[in-house]
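Morning. Coffee machine broken again, so started the prediction first thing and wrote up yesterday's gels while waiting. Chain of 186 residues, entered below exactly as on the submission form.
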Amino acid sequence: MTSESSATASPLARFEFEPHHCFACGSLNTHGLQLELHLEQGRSWTEFELERRFEGWEGIAHGGILCTILDEVMAWALVAEDDWGVTARMGVTFRKPVPVGTRIRADGWITRSRRRIVVTAGRIVDVATGVELATAEGTYVAADEAQKQRLRERYGFRAVPATAERATSTDTREAVALALSGSELR
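Came back before lunch.
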């Protein structure tokens, strides 16, 4: 392994996963966004500036890139609950153009969950002004237990307490719950 991607949650834990090629969060995709994701209970967020290479019309971020960012933070809200899933439906409302080079924050959160259907919401705001730039709603189909186990193994998703180099627990659900509740991992 040459590098690791990471997501962070609360000051108590950081989440790491194996390098991969995801356009949004993969550290191996040199053409991607390489988002640094932060996790909280049922939530995910990222903050950064979009580079000009993600431009649509001159000076304006491409709408498809904004959709990708919203999809990513909403999907990672599921991972924060150890409820991996795939996007079934997504609707986006663009409220204002997003100038490239503007510092933005994207948040995603779970609004309801029933069996394997998880409904989320998300938004992108201008960090400097707080102005809402885009909003989204998404519906995800959660993976079954066997698929979740394959995803955990493939991506090596693990909570890393601030005081330890790596989590030693093999039970990701327990590690996530403990890290997010403020308990230390054993």
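The mean pLDDT is 82. Going to sketch it on the whiteboard this afternoon.
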